[in-house]
Amino acid sequence: MAVYTEVPEEALAAFLEGYDIGRPVSCHGIAEGVENSNFLLKTTQATFILTLYERRVNPDELPWFLGLMQYLAQHGLSCPLPVADRQGRTLRTLSGKPAAITTFLPGGWSRQVDTDMCAQVGAAMARLHLLGEGFVAERPNSMGPQSWTGLLEACRARGDEVRPGLVAEIETVLARVLPAWPGVGNNPSLPRGQIHADLFPDNVFFRDGKLSGLIDFYFACTDWYAYDLAIAINAWCFDADRRFMTDHAKAMVEGYRHVRPLEAAEEAALSTLATGAAIRFTLTRLYDWINTPSDALVTRKDPLDYLVRMEFCAARMGERFLP
Ligand SMILES: Nc1ncnc2c1ncn2[C@@H]1O[C@H](COP(=O)(O)OP(=O)(O)OP(=O)(O)O)[C@@H](O)[C@H]1O
Ligand SMILES: N[C@@H](CCO)C(=O)O
């Protein structure tokens, strides 16, 4: 249950007076999500999402995230639009936490993934990349390759409790990936811009089989476009038994290409980027696994899901990722 902070009724009513969105009718905590407290807020005018920012989000970076969402939504991407108060502010404070109200997106995320959905995700991601070119402020990727060695060190003492030899396995692959990363040494740079960087199935809504929106931009950053695709291939294109689904990955890449053609260098880098993406999520999940008490409110995600992906992708480094 991701509600860490309660919002008393009177405090909410006073807060909403600063906006022009009607009076509160109801406000219920949303169980899904692990990072922030989210509430489904109904007012006399419409339904909204109220978010209180809690854990990993650096408050100083919230204006960038909200600015990007606002820009993308106003330019035609289906994503939550941050709602401005009467003074034009999208970022406020509520119950002592940074808080924002965004528009509510219809639809819901799907636990069943098929090739058509993967193609739609690829196309929506490419649209995000193209639209994002008009949003010039940059945010370096705080979860990029420069952070992985430190994360591994933070997991070194206890990582092998999850599985013996785990830390050494990650370390071996990391030592191959870091020097092969685009832009490092003589490796070519790739087209870059605003990326979502966490486009997992639970952040993509569908309605009647059609993609209805993208949510959760709080890992978004300025990085290689193809890295976003690599993250999504990891997240969408392995089955419950952790086997790679080539057709799903091909459909996603095709859907992407249809909107934004991939350069040869991006295709060539895909196996390295996918290996890096798998390392990133193995490490953050491992870190959380070790550092989240087992009786905490949030459900920990299994790092081994991503370790399997890491091994799979690493075996393809230096080759074309897709046949
Ligand atoms: N704009 C929106 N419209 C409709 N529902 C939303 C919207 N934003 C969030 N939700 C709902 O809230 C849930 C949690 O949102 P979100 O994924 O952003 O939270 P989070 O705490 O940042 O989670 P995590 O980073 O773990 O995915 C979503 O699964 C969805 O049910
Ligand atoms: N998508 C991440 C969680 C944080 O957004 C994961 O599955 O590890």
Automatic annotation (TrEMBL):
<dbReference type="GO" id="GO:0009088">
    <property type="term" value="P:threonine biosynthetic process"/>
</dbReference>
<dbReference type="Pfam" id="PF01636">
    <property type="entry name" value="APH"/>
</dbReference>
<dbReference type="InterPro" id="IPR005280">
    <property type="entry name" value="Homoserine_kinase_II"/>
</dbReference>
<protein>
    <recommendedName>
        <fullName>Homoserine kinase</fullName>
        <ecNumber>2.7.1.39</ecNumber>
    </recommendedName>
</protein>
<comment type="pathway">
    <text>Amino-acid biosynthesis; L-threonine biosynthesis; L-threonine from L-aspartate: step 4/5.</text>
</comment>
<dbReference type="GO" id="GO:0004413">
    <property type="term" value="F:homoserine kinase activity"/>
</dbReference>
<dbReference type="InterPro" id="IPR002575">
    <property type="entry name" value="Aminoglycoside_PTrfase"/>
</dbReference>
<dbReference type="InterPro" id="IPR011009">
    <property type="entry name" value="Kinase-like_dom_sf"/>
</dbReference>
<keyword id="KW-0418">Kinase</keyword>
<dbReference type="GO" id="GO:0005524">
    <property type="term" value="F:ATP binding"/>
</dbReference>
<dbReference type="InterPro" id="IPR050249">
    <property type="entry name" value="Pseudomonas-type_ThrB"/>
</dbReference>
<keyword id="KW-0067">ATP-binding</keyword>
<keyword id="KW-0791">Threonine biosynthesis</keyword>
<keyword id="KW-0808">Transferase</keyword>
<comment type="similarity">
    <text>Belongs to the pseudomonas-type ThrB family.</text>
</comment>
<keyword id="KW-0547">Nucleotide-binding</keyword>
<keyword id="KW-0028">Amino-acid biosynthesis</keyword>
